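Severity: low
Component: inverse-folding endpoint
Summary: output formatting inconsistent between runs
Steps to reproduce: submit the following structure tokens with default settings.
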């Protein structure tokens, strides 16, 4: 961990500090349903407040592209309405322009932060407009201003120079504490530093923890090192598989991507999800594991059904079959009991474990057993460093009550995947070296 942190800055008093947070929290009917990301940002914010900084907080919320008509892609439901003549694409876009600012505002986050931080948080109704400018200028030492959703400006994702200049006016010092967006090279995550607009750029405590635990475990793992990859598509994890095979002792594959590996070995997979274009790649990875003396584990039994549940949490009739002979009319949707035991046993012998991606359709109670078994194995791994790489895996650990038994649960699924792949993250790379 060779990047400067907030503790490496000696004097915060009276300084205007722009802090990039990840407040992209789940919402329902205007209420926050999971505030983990907000709570995760508090140590850095409190530290800056206690040291007399004037703090401007910024974050995105969702993907409000519909407010930019040239970015709009209608979903299937809307397309069907247009095809039936029930409405027009233009009408849908106009409605979105009115609805999305209300649905994706950060106002509820500001209200919750204000409760958590003793009434010292003000909400700006814009990002670089007159309300934000006035509130940032009026911000006192030890107080905060939260800007409105950064992505209400197309310039954020396009890292527009003029937009970056306006953001940089809020920053004598820049702090990035949004690991969940550190793999994005956007205006607020990297560009204002890359353009040389802010000279002092450091990470907050959240990113420091992510880098210290995850990066160090990848670079200097205690062996045996077990990596577990799940999720739907091989294509999403091409570089991750290859990179981890060079570092780990055992690579465990589950989820939808397992069926492409099984088919690559010549097994019948029925109607299971498969990426035929990646069969050659899977064969290469199987050979790579053999050549490097690494263990690559695939499911030995599979929970199957006649079709994917619709809706996803609907009751579904299942049976368990050998992974080497899935019936032609059946679809694999979770790992079976023997595989759960096999994977759990391997985890129990490990000293370092990283996990990204569910073992099956864990959103369905009938098909969640595989993911639950892996989460339980990590929680029970004695003396091991256990790391969950965000996303669905993190959600599963939280739902099952295992979060406090895992060494580290990442706040960024996409960012942790790129870290696992060995990529340099723009939001980290731009920060000052120690």
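Observed output (run 2 of 3):
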């Amino acid at each position: 961990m060779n990047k400067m942190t907030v503790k490496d800055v000696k004097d915060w008093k009276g300084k205007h500090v722009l802090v990039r947070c990840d407040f992209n929290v789940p919402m329902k009917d205007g209420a926050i349903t999971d505030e983990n990301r907000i709570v995760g940002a508090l140590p850095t914010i409190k530290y800056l407040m206690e040291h007399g900084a004037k703090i401007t907080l910024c974050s995105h919320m969702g993907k409000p592209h519909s407010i930019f008509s040239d970015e709009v892609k209608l979903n299937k439901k809307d397309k069907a309405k247009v095809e039936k003549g029930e409405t027009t694409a233009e009408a849908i876009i106009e409605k979105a322009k009115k609805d999305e600012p209300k649905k994706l505002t950060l106002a509820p986050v500001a209200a919750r932060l204000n409760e958590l931080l003793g009434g010292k948080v003000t909400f700006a109704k814009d990002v670089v407009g007159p309300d934000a400018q006035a509130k940032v200028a009026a911000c006192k030492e030890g107080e905060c201003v939260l800007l409105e959703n950064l992505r209400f400006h197309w310039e954020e994702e396009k890292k527009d120079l003029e937009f970056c200049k306006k953001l940089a006016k809020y920053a004598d010092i820049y702090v990035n504490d949004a690991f969940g967006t550190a793999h994005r090279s956007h205006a607020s995550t990297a560009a204002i530093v890359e353009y040389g607009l802010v000279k002092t750029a450091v990470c907050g405590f959240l990113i420091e923890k992510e880098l210290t635990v995850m990066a160090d475990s990848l670079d200097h793992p205690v062996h045996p090192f077990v990596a577990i990859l799940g999720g739907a598509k091989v294509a999403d994890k091409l570089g991750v598989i290859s990179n981890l095979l060079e570092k780990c002792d055992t690579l465990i594959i589950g989820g939808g991507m397992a069926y492409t590996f099984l088919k690559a070995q010549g097994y019948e997979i029925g109607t299971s999800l498969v990426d035929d274009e990646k069969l050659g790649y899977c064969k290469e990875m199987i050979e790579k594991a053999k050549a490097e003396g690494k263990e690559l584990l695939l499911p030995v039994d599979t929970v199957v059904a006649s079709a994917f549940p619709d809706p996803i949490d609907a009751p579904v009739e299942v049976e368990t079959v050998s992974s080497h002979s899935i019936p032609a009319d059946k679809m694999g949707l979770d790992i079976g009991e023997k595989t759960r035991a096999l994977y759990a046993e391997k985890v129990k012998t490990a000293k370092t474990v990283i996990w990204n991606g569910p073992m099956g359709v864990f959103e369905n109670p009938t098909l969640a057993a595989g993911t639950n078994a892996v989460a339980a194995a990590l929680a029970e791994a004695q003396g091991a460093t256990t790391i969950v790489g965000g996303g669905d895996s993190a959600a599963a650990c939280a739902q099952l009550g295992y979060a406090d038994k895992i060494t580290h649960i990442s706040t960024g699924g996409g960012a942790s995947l790129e870290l696992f792949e060995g990529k340099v993250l723009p939001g980290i790379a731009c920060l000052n070296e120690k």
